[in-house]
Amino acid sequence: MTRPRLWTVLTLSAALAACSGDKTAPTNNAVENALNAAANAAENAAANAVNATNIAPPTANAFGKYVGKYPFDKVGAHSWADDPAVTKAVETAVADKAVRKWVLDDAGPSSPIGTIDGKVAAWSCQTHNCGPHQWLTLVDPASGTAEICYYDESVDAQSTRWFKAGKEEKRPGKCPEIPS
Predict the structure, then answer these.
(1) Alpha-carbon dihedral 150, 154, 159, 164, rounded to 10 degrees
(2) For FRET with 139, which of 2, 49, 80, 87 sits at 20 to 30 Å CA-CA?
(3) pLDDT per position as a tens digit, 16-51
């Protein structure tokens, strides 16, 4: 309820109680009820705003539907790289904008999406530079969280950069391969 309406309700309630001729008319109850109604409306609006931002995690099917497809294949309206659930998972995992750009680019060579240890896995690489520059996205279908392996031989030939929840760590070797 807006402030002008609230004041109108309060004023009318007080006026009606005063005009009734009953000296014991419950003007305080009318005012209290109006104030409570306004407070409840404000609380409900705040709760609805919070609920709108707490979007439920994607279902397993949000990622599993891509298994057996290439990252650039459309499944419904989206490919792996432009699917909002995948994009959100990658953006949450990787703080480095340059790495995120490579991971979400579906123009390079890639293998069919598969699974590794129960996670949906998508592997891609840079065109004409696959061995030295590659990445793997692992998404947990239950939580929608991603873990990204990123290998760039020109930066570090001995280890990969792993990203998860906005944090980065180095691990020896290259990114794992998706089993056939």
Answers:
(1) -20
(2) 49
(3) 344 444 444 444 555 555 444 444 444 444 444 333
Domain residue limits, the chain: 3-53, 61-172
Spatial distance between the Cα atoms of 131 and 67, rounded to a whole number of angstroms? 23
Q: What is the sign of the dihedral through the CA atoms of 25, 27, 32 and 33?
A: positive
Fold of the domain spanning 61-172: Inhibitor of vertebrate lysozyme, Ivy (3.40.1420)
Counts of helices then strands in the chain (DSSP H, E): 5, 6
What DSSP line would sit under 63-85, residue for residue? HHTTTTS-TTS-BTTB-GGG-HH
pTM of the model: 0.66
Chain centroid to CA 115: 22
For the chain, helix, strand, coil in percent to 5 are: 40, 20, 40
Of 11, 141, 130, the C-alpha closest to 67 is 141
Cβ neighbors of 153 (< 8 A, separation 6 or more) are: 131, 132, 133
Phi, psi of 8 (to 5 degrees): -65, -45
Q: Identify the DSSP state of 127.
A: T
